Every structure is written in structure tokens, then in C-alpha cells.
């Protein structure tokens, strides 16, 4: 429930970190502010190649992403750790295949998330992989089990030690990427909608950031209930996708006032509002509630402005933070709830119950995680940027698959291009406004994306063979 | 939803009130502060006798309780109104048999409830009776239907005009008293537990004032769900009754710290807390919640101290009023809800849905309103006192049956006795503390109660015959 019963894996993670040789830190890279992946990639190149072939206790090494300090994307570095983690009773060792990125990871990087211990520390709340060893007293997991994992942190690495009851068996037909995309977003959406929200037929729901991980999960879960209307906010370019995914009314929050748009269609207001934004948007949401309506706030994305901590944004969010008197709640017949999965560790029973229902939905074909893009560990900075700049539709995934040499070269070229691009951007900055600039960056990136996606798919085809061995 | 769509019956009530002859106000009674019923009874004696036999439009009269100004129990007076109310489309005229008392009525008398228009006005949010006339466009109610009624106010009178969709058919075997006891308490408890609370098997619930109307309804409704644990607060003398009624752990809030008592049994805290108290108790409740717990606050009973508005109590309640930041909700994974049925008028669909489930529970024998005591309209002051001093176990009911002459004489004697009693009390007051005094008063009253209850039962036996005509 509290920090006291933090999972054993955390302590391991810390131990491992201390075993990391300082010489493995990237040295050759000149100080950069926005292009860490190349640096990290170089640092990790040699050890990565040897990881799979030398599993002996003493020479056991694995790659891990480490948050080295609070700040921009470059603060997450790829390091090589040495020494096979030991298992305590009730724990399992998971060979990680894919990891999910979450908003909390972005907040954590800026020092805005208190569930992550101080750097240096390995972030990552969810992953998928294969059980490689089981500790004593573990009865329901065995070596070779494909599992997805939910943990407070520490999963962005090739090997993770976690309590067995933090793992869930991956059902038939679910890929490792899907499995890494599922836990945080779907449990969050499920508990908000079905526990706090008590969603029932004919109700209407507002889903902010409907193209994000939680947004897509929430939309799909809403559709498991009869005649639920989903209002979803997203920039216009994402409307087609989210509408196909189940959003009834897509609203472009950049060009329209979402409150007005909702009122046009539902003058009485809304039954459930999922609010990841915080600040003044929480006030708007509260006023948009019907009697017996539920506002469920689960983040403060408005605090994230830019890649480093933006004190003005934080202060503004704090200043506008929603505070509510019971008298107002009584007279309005309203409910205000707060949710964050990161503060629910210890509630294994609740989480397992939710996960079982979610997996049933998956087996029945009612839900399916949508993967936006998959990135190598070396590309974690780009992956985070894509999410933070809201250029994703669905989940951003990291894969632990080693990066092919030719791709690394390409990556370096891209980094150079990005540098040029940045310079160009800076010039344009004087003429154009922020929003317009973002749109352009996004378009440029989109052109690059399909190539990456295709390559990824080829790699995926190979993967199942390896596991069958 | 708001005051704009207040039921038509309210306007009628106001019209009727204006037709009341000022000469019907009690004149002969010397000014008293605490014994209005006798006065009101005298005033109403003659018209009451003629009500049933002269139903012609012009000479139509009926008795009505009227709040004449904010203050003590004597501010609610029994008056006789003249002129048959006219029906608008969609309305029905109900011949009222029994009325329920609610905490909001007590708050209203002190001027602490903004859903009741300014005095003079007839209070009363619920009643039962027989449909005597139907307006145009009413298709689902007919003359002779036995109904229970839920309205914003205006039901403490012999005749009430209400929208047909504010009435619910009384099921077979339910007495008028039970029917008058049901709507407010059971809909309130139902919506709090099953809509906001999302009550599920194995959960635990704290019910404050577990011997009160909502408390008993909530306890019974909790028991419709498998393995729900109910913590109920009440003074020790009521423990046997509430335990028999379904409370798992009865806690004497007068002698024990209920927070400690709950923690002893459920160290992790509670899933649902129903809080009618407000002020500092809301803070305690919030801290007692488990992760994913729901605090549902539905009143500010702590504001009621004494029969007249107690500015200190009001100020204290205001000062301690619970206010919550979203950040705390997020980190705690908690929900804070406010509920008040009085602000839900207009939400006919929600209310009808809840009522249908409640009536199903009744038919299945899962719930049964518990009547504490039944009082004549003339005794409304005593009835309110009983409730406000927390001497009731279950619902306090008013009946519109005329008071038998011999009972009236007894009543007058009792009033005299009470005056003596009060003088005695004042003397004792110097020696004893407030609490002790209340306990004694309660005991005295209990001795008188059984007689009244027996008489009531005899009257009830006669009633069904009349209705069959």
C-alpha cells in the first residue's frame, strides 16, 4: 500500500545498479542536450552482442536503461550491468522482450513523479518477457512462461527480478509488444471506468488524449458496454483513427473549445470524465458533469511543457489545481476521484481481478492494444519525445532486441539530420508560433516512421522461432 | 435539474397557502416556545372533522403543516387550507395518508436548507396516499391507485398535487406508513451505495447513524450483496436493534473513537463510508478510506445543535468543511462524492430506475422499512424533536388520520407534564452535563411511546377497509 512494501525487485534493481562499472558510462560522446540515443547506443554496443551467449553467474551481463539525473531526454542512458540478480522467495527472473512507455516515465525524468527513487535508477512500469528462473515458494510460474509484468519501476532493462504476483500469463496469440502495451493503460482505464466510474449502458464519457495509450484503452473498454457514447479529444490528424477505434465524437482540442463541443451534443453534460490534464481542465471537467457524474483525474499532463521541468508550467498547474468543497459536491451530486496505478502497488488482489477481466476481453476480441511504434533501447530518447510531443497514436514500445548494425548507422545519420533540422527550426521559430512548429516536426517524423515500422515487422516475424527453441 | 423546473405542485402549494384564511391561525394559545402541537390541534379541530364529507370545489378544505418562519419546533403549524387545487397536465392529486420526516426538514426549519422556498411554505419530501384525481395526459396512474410520492417539498398535508412521474405504485402488502418511510431513505442509500459506491461482494462499509432512516436502509441494502461487512455507529442502547438489522460491528460513537474501532477490525481501512455528519468527521472518513475507497458525504448533521439555528455549530461545521485537492486524491486513489436527493429533482429517470430496484428488493423480502413511531400532524413538533435528539430507531412518520378526541386530551396532559419536566430538567442542568440529560429525556419518552404505537396499530387495521370502498 505504501512505500514500505515496495517490491523486492526494487532493492535488486538498486543492487544491480551499484554493480555497474562506472567505466561503462558513455565517455566518448561530446555533451549534447537532445540526442542521447546515439551516445547510449555506442556505449552499449559491445556488451549487447555478448549478452545472450554468456549466461554464467559471474560473467552475466545485461543492458539497462538508467535515469542518471532529472532533465531532458538525454538523461536516460543505456548502460551494461554485470552479475546475475539473485532471487528471493516469491520472485521470478524475467528475460524482458518489450517495455511500455508511460506518461509517469516522462514525469519521472523531470523529477515530477515521487514513486521513482532518486537517480540513478532504472525506470519502467511494465514489460513483457519470458520467465528465466523462479525463486522458492513460486508455484504458479515456471521457466519458459511468457508473462507481462507490472511494477512500480525498474523494467526498462533486459533482465528484471519481480515478485511472481506482479506477473500475468500472456494469452495465446498476444505478441510481446501487445503484452508490454497492456498492463498500465488497460488496468488504469479499467479501474477508472468500472470501479470509480461504475460505467453503465447509455452513459456518455469524455476521454482526453483519446489517441494516447490510456485513451485508446478507455475507448475500447467503453465499447464493451452497450450504447456508450465516447467523446474523444485529439488533434485533427488523428480523428480518423480514433473514430475507427470507437470514439463517437472526435474533438480537435487545438482548434475548438471541447466544453462547447460536448454541450452542443449533450447539453446536460457527461456521466464520466477521464482527466489526465489537471490544472484548469479539471475545473472545466467538473462543470461538465451531469448530476451523479464522476470526474476521474489521473495525471497532470499540463505540467509537462518541454523536455525539461518547466517551472512555470508546474506552478501554473499547481495554482490552478482543483480543490473541491464537500458542500459543492453535495449540491451538485457529483463525484471527484483520483487515480494513479503507481500508488496502487500492494493492492495485488484488486489489480489481478482487473487484469483477469481485461484478459477475458482480449480473448473475446473486445480489446486489442494498438502499438504506435517500437524503438530499440538505444532510441529511448526519440521514443519519449514522440510520446511527449503527442505524435503517437497508441502505445510507444521499447524492444530489447539488439539494434542491427546498419540501422545504427542510419540512426547516426538521422541524428545528424535532426541537428540540421533543429537549426532550421530555430530560424523558423522567429516567424512561426509554437503549435505550427510542432505540427511540422510531426509531419517530418511521420515520413520517417513507416520505414522503421516495416523493419520492426520483419524482426517480429523472426522472434517466435527463437522462443520456440 | 435546477430550480427552474421545480414541480408544478409547488406553485399550487403556494397558491393554496395564500387562500388560507388568516383567522384560522391559532389565536387562543398563549405564546409558547416548545409546545406547538396542542395549539395547532385546536386550530385545526373543526375543519378536520368536515374535510371528508364536503368534497365540493368551493368548500373543499384540507389540513396542511406550514413552516411559518425559521426557528424551533413551534415554527411548523397546522393550518386549514380552502379550495380544491386544480390539476395541470401530467399531474395527479393525492389524498395523503402518511408522510416521512427527514433530516432536510429539520435543517429547513432552521433555515439551513436552500431547496425549500422561504416561509410560509409546506415542507415534506415524501408521503404515501391514494390518487384522487388525475390531470390530462396522465396515462399510467388512475383514481384509486395507492402511491408513494417523492417531491422537493410540500407533502406534509392532507392533499398534494404532484407530477405523476413523482409517484410510484405501492406494492402488495406494503402499508402506507412503510410507503411513506421508503422513498427518501432508500433512494438515498441505494444511489450512494450502488451508483457512487459501486458496492461489491466482500467490501466493508461504515454507516454513521446506523439507527436512523438512511442508516437502516443502507444496512439492509448492504446485506443484499454477498459478504459485505457493515460498521454502524449508534448509541449503545440501539446496538441490539441495529445488529439484528444487519450491522456487523456496532460502535458507540459516544464512548469510543470510531476510527480506532474500525482500524482494530479492518487495519487497511474501508471501501465505502457514508458520511451524514460533515465537518471534522469528513476528514476522519477520508483518512479511513482504503485505496479505491469511496467517501460519500450527504449532509451536515453536525450543524444541527439544538432546535434553533446554532451559529457556532454552523460556523464550526463551515470552518472544518472538507476540501480536497486532486493531487491528494490521485496519490491516495480515493473518491469523494456528495449526494443529496433534494438536488436531484428533474432526474426522474435515475430516480425511477433506483426505485424499481428498491421495490424489487422489497418484494423479494430483502428490505423492509422500519417505523420508529407514528405521530399525528398535530404532534409534528414532538416528531421532529424525537428525530433531532436522535431518539429514534428507524423512520419517524406523520399520519393524516384525525387525532381521536381522547388522545388530544392526553396530549394536552402530556404537554403540561413536559412543561413540568422541562422545569425539572433546568434544575438538573446545573448538576449534569448535556449528554446525560438527553439520555434521561429519551428514557422518559420511551415509556410513553408504546401506548402511542399500540393505538396507531388499531387505526391501521381500520384503514384498509376505507380504501377498498
TrEMBL record, chains A, B:
Q: What protein name does the entry list? A: Vesicle amine transport 1
Q: Which organism is it from?
A: Oreochromis niloticus
- Residues of the signal sequence? none
Q: Which domain of life is it from?
A: Eukaryota
- UniProt KW Oxidoreductase keyword: yes
Q: What PANTHER family does this protein map onto?
A: SYNAPTIC VESICLE MEMBRANE PROTEIN VAT-1 HOMOLOG, SYNAPTIC VESICLE MEMBRANE PROTEIN VAT-1 HOMOLOG-LIKE
GO aspect biological process, one term: negative regulation of mitochondrial fusion
What family is reported? Belongs to the zinc-containing alcohol dehydrogenase family. Quinone oxidoreductase subfamily.
Write out the entry's keywords from A to Z: Oxidoreductase
What is any one of the record's Gene Ontology cellular component terms? Answer: mitochondrial outer membrane
Compositionally biased intervals (Low complexity): 35-52
Instruction: List every stretch annotated Disordered.
Output: 1-55, 388-469
Q: Gene symbol? A: VAT1
Amino acid at each position: 500500500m505504501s512505500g514500505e512494501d515496495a517490491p523486492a525487485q526494487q532493492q535488486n534493481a538498486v543492487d544491480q545498479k551499484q554493480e555497474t562499472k562506472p567505466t561503462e558510462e558513455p565517455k566518448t560522446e561530446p555533451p549534447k542536450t537532445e540526442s542521447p540515443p546515439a551516445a547510449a547506443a555506442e556505449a552499449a554496443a559491445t556488451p549487447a552482442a555478448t549478452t545472450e551467449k554468456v549466461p554464467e553467474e559471474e560473467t552475466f551481463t545485461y543492458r539497462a536503461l538508467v535515469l542518471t539525473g532529472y532533465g531532458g531526454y538525454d538523461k536516460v542512458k543505456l548502460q551494461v550491468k554485470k552479475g546475475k540478480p539473485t532471487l528471493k522467495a516469491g520472485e521470478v527472473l524475467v528475460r524482458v522482450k518489450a517495455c511500455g512507455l508511460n506518461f509517469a516515465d516522462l514525469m519521472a525524468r523531470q523529477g515530477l513523479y515521487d514513486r521513482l527513487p532518486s537517480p540513478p535508477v532504472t525506470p519502467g512500469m511494465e514489460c513483457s518477457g519470458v520467465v528465466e528462473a523462479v525463486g522458492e515458494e513460486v508455484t504458479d510460474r515456471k521457466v519458459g512462461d511468457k508473462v507481462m509484468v507490472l511494477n512500480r519501476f525498474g523494467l526498462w532493462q533486459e533482465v528484471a527480478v519481480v515478485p511472481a504476483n506482479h506477473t500475468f500469463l500472456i494469452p495465446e496469440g498476444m505478441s510481446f509488444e501487445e503484452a508490454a502495451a497492456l498492463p498500465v493503460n488497460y488496468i488504469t482505464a479499467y479501474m477508472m471506468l468500472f470501479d470509480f466510474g461504475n460505467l453503465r449502458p447509455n452513459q456518455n464519457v469524455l476521454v482526453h488524449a483519446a489517441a494516447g495509450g490510456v485513451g485508446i484503452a478507455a475507448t475500447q473498454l467503453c465499447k464493451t458496454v452497450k450504447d456508450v457514447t465516447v467523446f474523444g479529444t485529439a488533434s485533427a490528424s488523428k480523428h480518423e483513427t480514433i473514430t475507427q477505434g470507437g470514439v463517437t465524437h472526435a474533438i480537435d482540442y487545438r482548434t475548438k473549445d471541447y466544453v462547447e463541443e460536448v454541450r452542443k451534443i449533450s447539453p446536460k453534460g457527461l456521466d464520466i470524465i477521464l482527466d489526465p490534464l489537471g490544472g484548469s481542465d479539471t475545473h472545466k471537467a467538473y462543470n461538465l458533469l451531469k448530476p451523479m457524474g464522476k470526474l476521474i483525474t489521473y495525471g497532470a499532463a499540463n505540467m509537462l511543457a518541454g523536455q525539461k521541468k518547466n517551472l512555470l508550467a508546474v506552478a501554473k498547474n499547481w495554482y490552478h489545481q482543483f480543490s473541491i468543497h464537500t458542500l459543492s459536491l453535495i449540491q451538485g451530486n457529483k463525484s471527484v476521484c483520483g487515480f494513479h496505478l503507481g500508488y496502487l502497488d500492494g493492492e495485488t488482489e484488486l489489480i489481478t481481478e482487473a487484469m483477469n477481466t481485461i484478459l477475458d476481453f482480449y480473448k473475446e476480441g473486445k480489446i486489442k492494444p494498438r502499438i504506435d511504434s517500437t524503438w530499440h533501447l538505444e532510441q529511448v530518447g526519440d521514443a519519449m519525445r514522440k510520446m511527449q510531443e503527442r505524435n503517437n497514436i497508441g502505445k510507444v514500445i521499447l524492444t530489447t532486441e539488439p539494434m542491427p548494425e546498419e540501422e545504427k548507422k542510419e540512426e547516426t545519420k538521422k541524428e545528424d539530420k535532426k541537428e540540421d533540422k533543429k537549426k532550421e527550426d530555430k530560424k523558423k521559430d522567429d516567424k512561426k508560433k509554437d503549435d505550427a512548429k510542432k505540427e511540422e516536426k510531426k509531419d517530418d517524423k511521420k515520413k520517417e516512421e513507416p520505414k522503421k515500422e516495416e523493419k520492426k515487422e520483419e524482426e517480429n516475424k523472426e522472434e517466435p522461432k527463437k522462443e520456440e527453441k
